[in-house]
Amino acid sequence: MNKRSGIESKKRIIDAALRLFSEYGYSKASMRMIANAAGISIGGLYLHFKNKDELYLTLMKSKMDDFAGRTMDSVKDIADPAEAINAFMTVTLDYAKKHKGLILLQGRELGFTFGLEMKRKFFKKQRGIIEDIIRCGIRTGIFRKVNVRETAKIIFSVIRGFVLSIVVEPNALFSPEECGSLILNGLLKRDGK
Amino acid sequence: MNKRSGIESKKRIIDAALRLFSEYGYSKASMRMIANAAGISIGGLYLHFKNKDELYLTLMKSKMDDFAGRTMDSVKDIADPAEAINAFMTVTLDYAKKHKGLILLQGRELGFTFGLEMKRKFFKKQRGIIEDIIRCGIRTGIFRKVNVRETAKIIFSVIRGFVLSIVVEPNALFSPEECGSLILNGLLKRDGK
DNA sequence: AGTTCACATGAACAAACGTTCAGGTATAGA
DNA sequence: TCTATACCTGAACGTTTGTTCATGTGAACT
User: Fold this and answer.
1) Are A67 and A153 in a shared domain?
2) What is the spatial distance between Cα B65 and Cα B126, in angstroms, rounded to a whole number?
3) How far is A148 from chain B (nearest CA, A)?
4) Contact status of B97 with chain A (Cβ, < 8 Å)
């Protein structure tokens, strides 16, 4: 099983690493396991990534960029803020559900010193999108005059919680639609209705 | 530093373990480190806990029981559902903020097979409290007729997200009050106002 | 004073870890 | 056919891991 195309090997390594990091966590997924799953030798693995940290970070970076790009795209040309909130919610949660591997990987090893800065940047960017939507909603008079930053944090927290739920209680997930509805309408009865 | 009271040693071990598990995670906090921090020998550690798993689980169990008890107490004799939601939120989030160690410990190592069942039970119980409050709110006509289970999941998800935020972005936390307000009132402008 | 017993020690062990390295092999160009 | 190059191999190394065990120690009871 020799003489492969280099980039293809690298790709197989990344795939295997994502799978194993996700299932076992950073510490318990050993380089040997990853090499094995990728159909390459241990030495070969180190030919493509200079060490375990680099492998992990490369993985994270590429997947998170992809994630961010998609959510951004899905919202950018929706005019109605209420609809945009819903869309952002739905896209994010669906993506998370479909890519459990990434989610597991990123949720786990939380206190990791060496991936933290990257994650923070990612979160800030995502929260920024929500803030823009809220500001737009307030400007156009559709939303109440809430504290934009606080509210964005809260909404983002719902998403983060959902993502965590995927890991801990996969069969206790709520529907994105119901969630959008609660965020928009609240729990209290409307005066009129 | 010999001849201690046994239970006191055990207590020191638990303290040290919580601190080190929290800071370094399950895998990277070694039994030697824990023994060291507890001021006991490696062998002595195994006198009190038969292995690393047991130490971890004992820790988790005791802290989670404490957590559950406190949140339960804080809500049980508040009549107004809206107020109860707020109280539950505040107490839970404050507790989480005050006990970062526990939170880190429990958020980290998410995919752990051997602690999962316990965690699920804990979450279910907590969600049950919220469900009761919502049901009460609907019955008394204060809340809209929402899907109780779904809504409870969502609210719980906010909490879970907050808890995660403590770890990842400690200075990007929202206020429990603002959060309660959003959940109760929603984002859309009220008809009357 | 002697025995017992709960608590404590740290050297020792096997296993697993991340990483390196001396070497091997198939392809591409000469 | 020879050489250069890119890709690959797995034994080996030095650490560190969780866990065990033969041995000690001091207080309490007989």
Assistant:
1) yes
2) 11
3) 11
4) no
pLDDT tens for each residue of A99-110: 877 777 776 655
Does residue B54 belong to any structural domain of this protein?
no
Mean pLDDT, rounded, of chain B: 85
Q: How far is the CA of B124 from the C1' of C17 (A)?
A: 38
CB of B161 less than 8 A from some CB of A: yes
Is residue B140 predicted with pLDDT exceeding 50? yes
Domain identity same for A40 and A64: no
Angle, helix B148-168 to helix B113-139, in steps of 10 degrees? 130
Q: Do A184 and B182 touch (CB under 8 A)?
A: no
Residue with tokens 């559902």: B81
Can you tell me the distance from the alpha carbon of B4 to that of B15, in angstroms, rounded to the nearest whole number? Answer: 16
Which pLDDT band, with edges at 50, 70 and 90, does A3 fall under? Answer: low
Residue A123 or residue A55, greater confidence = A55
- CA A51, C1' C28: Å apart? 30
